[in-house]
Give the backbone structure.
Amino acid sequence: MSALLSVSSLTRRFGGLVAVNGVTLDLRLGEVHAVIGTNGAGKSTLINMLSGEIAASEGRIALDGEEITRRSQALRARSGVGRSYQRTTIFPEFTVHENCRLAAQAATPRPWAIWQSSRSCDASNAAAREALEAAGLAEVAGRVAGTLSHGAKRQLEVAMCLATRPRVLLLDEPLAGMGAEETDRMLTLLAKLKASHAILLVEHDMDAVFRIADRITVMVNGAVIASGDPASIRQNPEVRTAYLGEEGGH
């Protein structure tokens, strides 16, 4: 299957520091593509470049064959690129449904509808309901978001992303701080979402990565040292030495 999001020789420099160095990868519909590496490997910078939060110094990004390298973050979001962040970004004082409705409205602003209450926007409410159903949170739609468990808050962030109706999901450490049961729920959600989305997953939980990923890219010092299916990554001597902490590939 052809790539939905294609990245070619993507590079980002901060002065003399090369944070991301010539990264090439493809995100395909139906796949979870995990990006792993130690702290400082360039993973979050890569996501920020893909989402449009940081401009690329060099390289090319294409969405469904159309170049979006210089497109703004807002335009990328409206084109179908959604992302979540390492830190929780929900509105804790609003309900779960309101969080998703606000995300949907941000994706499709209607500045001409100044006479209409945002709460009565049928399209935004419908998008919010669909996202909550997909994320498994429909039953808690009326709950104040700040009262949710940590795992449910992370699910809500994914739901808010889904409310923008993206085709590509860029997820930055969605499992951070989760217990085993919460991790299982999130992995089940990602397995369901990949049927209709191309997913890039940055994650430190290696057990979870090898359970869910269809493809894994390994970064060290901003560059890719290996990319392939989980079995080949497990057996790669360079990966085992540089990242998994094993000597000589044993």
